[in-house]
Structure formats: structure tokens, C-alpha cells
Amino acid sequence: MATPYSDRLVQSTASIAAPVIRDVRLRDLGDALSRGWEDFKAVPSHALLLCVIYPVLGVALFRLVIGYSVLPLLFPLAAGFALIGPFAALGLYELSRRRERGEEASAWHAFSVLSAPSFGAMLGLGTLLLTLFVIWVAAANAIYVGLFGYAPAAGIPDFASRIFTTREGLLLIVVGCGVGFLFALVALCISVVSFPMMLDRHATVAAAIYTSLRVVAKNPVSMAAWGLIVAALLVIGSVPLFLGLTVVLPVLGHATWHLYRKAVEPDPNPPRERPHPPKGRRYAAEFPISLLPWGRHKP
Q1: Do 99 and 113 contact (CB within 8 A), yes or no?
Q2: Beta-bridge partner residues of 264
Q3: pLDDT per position as a tens digit, 161-215
Q4: How far is residue 209's CA from residue 256's CA, in Å, rounded to a whole number?
Q5: What's this model's pTM, rounded to 2 decimal places?
Q6: Coil, strand, or helix at residue 146?
Q7: CA–centroid distance for 250 within its chain
Q8: Does residue 206 fall inside a structural domain?
Q9: Which residues pair with 21 in a beta bridge?
Q10: Residue 29, CB half-sphere, CA atoms under 13 Å: how many?
Q11: CA Rg, the chain, in Å?
């Protein structure tokens, strides 16, 4: 005999299997970015909490490659942010979702995504993107070694001279950008709306990836433009020692949630949400543990 729970499960599975995909116009991309900027302004404190790791990591990587004379990896590592960014923005999707529903949204709410029913699926897709990132860095290194051998660059001037004044350097730019484009294309196709969908509909990895592919197939021009926008903003944010990413990344994260809303029809049978526990009292001495769901006091 069917139970209310099994009925909800069947309805949820049906809605996940084939969500309705909308047409996404170029003006929708601008509107998604505008809404992402509004979310960022409404909850700006989370930028330091969630995204300052990127500038710190960028500076650390810069120092690492200088110290070990592996300058050829600096650009691939920086470009790799675009591959793992959708997973890193999980908390931002949750904040945008809460604001959309008229719920309270503050920095610590970003961590409630850790208790989402589909967090395991998100972690699985995040692992896939991380694997893609590692393969990209290995491929970029192999291309450089294939053209210049294993001899390290003596420093930044020597490295720049190799890249911009030699035939091998020009070939490296063309081949490297071409291969990097393929990696970025794969990441875009499988993750453009995957993480927001898993958070919103509790979808499986397979269902989320399939939906992302359908969105890209139905809106190839708009999705290509979105990829170019993301790449351009990441480059702009990376120029001042990656510090601009503290603004660019949260805005893009919030905008991705709104892009998902524009690309996928809302679920007619949304999964029932568990009630959020009360915040309880938090003390400054317990920061940052008090930001985590399991670190909050009961009232």
C-alpha cells in the first residue's frame, strides 16, 4: 500500500526526471548578474567568510610557483578557479534561496547547506570538478614540457620571453587556451545549473547533470555568453593579486542561482523542507564555530 512518503517520493522523482527548461535570453544574463549583485549587497559579510580563501590561495600559489620555479603552472592554477567555482559557491546559493523565499539570510546561514538532503550528491559532483581541475593542471604542465622541456625558467622575465617571443611560446598560448577551453566547456555543461538544482530539488548527480546539459543544448548562445562573462569577470578579479575575487566570486555565485531560476521551471511539487532549528544564543568567544549548525547553542 502506498504511503504519503512514497507518494511524495514518486512525485519528487518525476519532477526531477524532466524539469521544464526555459528559453534564456541575453538580457536574462544581465538580470541574473544584477540580482546577484543585490544579494551580495544584502549579505556582504559572507564574502570574507566564504571567499577570502581564494585571494589567500592565489597569493600562496603565486609565492609557491616563484619559489619552486614552476611559473608555467601559475596561469593554469588561476584559470582552474572557473572549474571548481560552482562547488565553492554552495553557501551562496543557499543565501540567495533564502532571500528569494523571504527568509532571514545572514553569513552563518550559508553553512546550513551542509545539512541539505542532497549534500552528498553535491559533494560527489564537487569531487568530479576537482578531478577535472587536477587533470587540467596536469595537461597544462604536459603541454609546456612537450614544448620547452623540463628546464625551469630562471625567473619572470625569462618566462615571459619564452612565452611571447618564441615560436614555442605562441604555440603554447594557442594549444593551452584551446585545451583549457575544452575543460571549461565540460565544466560549464555539467554544472551550469547542477548545484542549485540539487539544493532546490534534492536531485541526484545524474539528474542535475542531465538538466544542465539540456539547458546548454536549448540555449547554446546564451550559455556561451555566460561562460565568457564568467571567464572575463574571473580574469578581472584575478588581476590585483586575486583580491577582486572577494567580490567577483560571491556575485557570480548568487547570479548562478538566479540563472537557474530563469533556465528551469519551478518544481510543481517541491520537496518538503525540514524546519530550521532556532538559532539560539551565540557568543563572540565561540567564533567561528558558532557559525556552524552544530556549533550553535540550543535556546
Answers
A1: no
A2: 21
A3: 888 889 999 999 999 999 999 999 999 999 999 999 999 999 999 999 999 999 9
A4: 15
A5: 0.79
A6: helix
A7: 9
A8: yes
A9: 264
A10: 14
A11: 21
For residue 195, give the nearest of 92, 109, 45, 52 by alpha carbon: 92
Which residues contact residue 40 at a Cβ distance below 8 angstroms, ignoring those fewer than 6 apart?
Answer: 47, 247, 250, 251, 254
- Cell 551580495 appears where? 40
Place of cell 524539469: 19
The backbone region for 127, taken as left when phi is positive above 0, alpha when psi lies in -120 to 50, beta otherwise, is alpha
Q: How far is CA 89 from CA 25, 26, 170, 239, in A?
A: 24, 23, 34, 21
Domain span at residue 208 reads 47-267
* Cβ contact 291:49 at 8 Å: yes
Is 157 strand, coil or helix?
Answer: helix
Q: In angstroms, rounded to a whole number, what is the distance separating the alpha carbons of residues 24 and 102?
A: 25
- Domain count of the fold of the chain: 1
Determine which helix (DSSP H) or strand (DSSP E) holds 271, and give its type and residue range: none
Is 224 part of a structural domain of the chain? yes
For residues 204 and 16, the answer to whether their CB atoms sit within 8 Å is yes
Q: Is residue 109 part of a domain?
A: yes
Cell of 246: 572577494
Q: Which tens digit of pLDDT belongs to each residue from 77-133?
A: 777 878 888 998 898 999 999 999 888 887 778 888 889 999 999 999 999 999 999
